[in-house]
Amino acid sequence: MYVCVCEAATEEHVQQCISAGARTAKHVALGCGAGRGRGCGMCRDRIKSMIEQHYATVVECEAEAISA
Fold it and tell me: Is-contact 37 4, C-beta < 8 A?
């Protein structure tokens, strides 16, 4: 599914950027173009949500590993 129609960036593209270390929408824009700002900007909330979800899961997994 497309996250950013203006830049033709899919969820997979955005997720790859996040997995590679992108922690902000600006980092994602630099990585794959999504949310770059030349278009409508409607995707930025979705990108921020994907980043938050990814890092919340990472923290959760790290906490489980420490307590195990």
Answer: no
